[in-house]
Amino acid sequence: MLGVGLDWAEDYHDVALGVPGKGVIEQFRIDHGPAGVQRLVARCLALEPDPAEVRVVLETRHGLLVEALVDAGFTVLPVNPDLVARRRGPAKKKDDAEDARICCLLALDQYAELRRLVPHGALGAELRAIARDDERAARDERRLSNRLRADLLAVFPAAIDIADGDLGSAVFLRLLERWPSATELAAAGYDDIEALARANRHGWPDRFADRVAAALAEPRLAVRPELARAKAGSIRLAAAQLLLLRAQRRVWQHRMGEILLGGARYGRAKQPKDPQPENAFPGGEIYLSMPGLGDRLAARVAGEIGEHVEQFATPNALQCYAGRAPVTRRSGRSEYIVARRLAYNRYLGNAVQQWAFCSLRQSAWARQFYDAKIATGKSHNAALRALGNRWLEILWHCLRLGVLYDEATHTANRQRHHALAA
Q1: Where does the record place the Transposase IS110-like N-terminal domain (predicted)?
Q2: Nearest residue to 373 via CA among 352, 361, 358, 388
Q3: Domain-embedded: residue 120
Q4: How far is it, in rounded angstroms, from Cα 380 to Cα 402?
Q5: SS3 state of residue 277
Q6: pLDDT at residue 407 in the model
Q7: How many CA atoms lie within 13 A of 233 on its CB side?
Q8: Average pLDDT, the chain
Q9: What is the pLDDT of residue 268?
C-alpha cells in the first residue's frame, strides 16, 4: 500500500508519499497541469504497481486533479479541511508541505474511517452540473427580479400595474427591453404594443394593450426626467438578463427530463416517445414518482446522490449525507439533540428541504406528519427537516428495491406500523 497526501492549490500541489511501517518517505511539489499529474502518477506506480492500493487523501472532492487521480485508478479519500487542521499541533501552524504530510499519515492510518470517493458516471456528472447551475440561475433570477422591481418603483411605477403581479412574464420583459421608461412607452403606438404582445404569444394581445394604456393614464407622482433616463439602461439590462435566464433554464429543464427518463419528453403527458433505458439515469423514474419532485427538483436530488446508491449502506447514511439526521450529544447527565449537522452536502440538504415543502400538497400522510410536528411545538423548518428525513428513508428503500413510490402502499405500511406500536 502507498499513502499519498496532497495539499492542492490552483498553480501547484504539495505531495507527500509514505508506506506502512516507515511513514513519510518522500515529499515534492508538482505543477497543476498534465506534466505534473503524469509525474505524480508515474512516481506512485513505481512505488506501488497496483493503482487500487494507492490511497490519496486531499481536502477536496471536486476538480480536474481529482478526476485525473480517479481516472488513474487510485483510491481517492477526500477529507474535511478541519480534520487536517486539528492535527497541526498546538501552534496550529499553516504550511502546505506540512498539510501534505498530515494527509499522507491519514492515508496510512488503517483505523481512520475515511470514505472512498465514488465518482459520478457521465450521466450523473452532467445531471449534477446542470442542476447546480440551474439552482444558481434561479437565485440570480430572484435577485434580478427584486432589483428590477425596485427600479420600476423608483422611476416607472406604471410598469408594476402592467405586470399585474408577474414581473417574469416574457411579454412584460420584452416590453421593458424595448421601452424601458414611461416616456418611451407613452410614445409607442397602440398597434405596436399589440403587435409585441402577439409576437410573444400573449393570449389576449388587445387586452394587454388596453392594460398598458390604462396604467399609463393613471395619475402618479412625478418622476425626475434625469433619473428616469439614468435608470432606463438598468431596466433594459435587467429585462434582457431575465429573458436569457428563463430561456436557458427551459433548456436545462428539458435536458434534466431527458436524462432522468432516457429520452426527450413530448405531449401533455410529458413522456418520451422512444425511451432508451440504457441512456437514462439509474432510478430516474423512481425519483419522478416521488410526490413533490418534478424535473428540476428530482434532478437536484438525483445528481447529488449519484448513480451508486449502494455507497449508502443504510437509510441513515443517506440522511446524514443530506444533513437531515439529527445529532445526539451526551456528556455526563446532559443529553440534547442538535437539530442540524455542520458537515453535510448542502446542495442535497437544500433540495430535500424544498422537496419536503412541495410534498405537503401532494401527499396526505406528509401533510399529517408535518401538522403533527407543528402541534408538538416544532418550528416550520424543523418539521420540514423531519419530513425530509422520512422521504430520504423511503427513497433509499425504493432505489434499493427498484420499485416506484406508491402512496397507498406506504400509507398501509404506516398504519400497520402504528397499530403494532400501539
Answers
A1: 4-157
A2: 388
A3: no
A4: 32
A5: helix
A6: 92
A7: 4
A8: 90
A9: 58
The residue written with cell numbers 502518477 in the block is 41
Find out whether 306 and 118 touch, Cβ atoms under 8 Å: yes
Contact 39, 55 (CB under 8 A): no
3-state SS, 397-408, equals: HHHHHCCCCCHH
Q: Cell for 155?
A: 422611476
**Same structural domain for residues 44 and 171?**
no
SS3 assignment, position 225 = helix
Provide φ and ψ at 243, rounded to 5°.
Answer: -65, -40
Q: What is the DSSP letter of 333?
A: T
> Which neighbouring-strand residues pair with 388?
none
Q: What is the pLDDT of residue 276?
A: 74
Q: Are residues 294 and 404 in the same domain?
A: yes
Please state the domain count of the chain.
3
* Cell numbers linked to 163: 405586470
Q: How far is CA 215 from CA 168, 212, 225, in A?
A: 18, 5, 19
**pLDDT classification of 421: cutoffs 50, 70, 90:** confident
Q: What is the mean pLDDT of residues 318-337?
A: 76
Which residues contact residue 128 at a Cβ distance below 8 angstroms, ignoring those fewer than 6 apart?
A: 120, 303, 304, 306
Q: Which of 93, 65, 51, 128 is nearest to 308 (CA)?
A: 128
Distance between CA 238 and CA 150 in Å, rounded?
11
Is 360 found in the same domain as 288? yes
Domain final residue pick, 59, 77, 108? 108
b/e 53-74 (16+ beta carbons within 10 angstroms → b): ebbbbbbeeeeebbebbeebeb
Q: Which domain holds residue 165?
A: 125-253
325-333: average pLDDT: 72
Residue that is written with C-alpha cell 404506516 in the block: 414
